[in-house]
Amino acid sequence: MLEIKNLHASYGQLNAVKGVDITVNEGEIVFVVGPNGAGKSTLLKCVSGLLRPTSGTITFCGKSILKEQPERLCRSGLALVPEGRHIFGTLSVEENLRLAAMHRKDSAEVKKDIAWVVETFPILGKRFKGAAGYLSGGEQQQLAIARAILLKPKLMMIDEPSLGLAPLVIDQVYASLKKLNEGGMTLLVVEQSTARVLDLADEITVLRNGRVILSQSAEEGLDGQALEKAYFGYQTEETTVAALTPHLHMQEQSKVVHLKTH
Ligand SMILES: Nc1ncnc2c1ncn2[C@@H]1O[C@H](COP(=O)(O)OP(=O)(O)OP(=O)(O)O)[C@@H](O)[C@H]1O
Ligand SMILES: [Mg+2]
Question: What is the pTM of this model?
Answer without folding.
Answer: 0.84
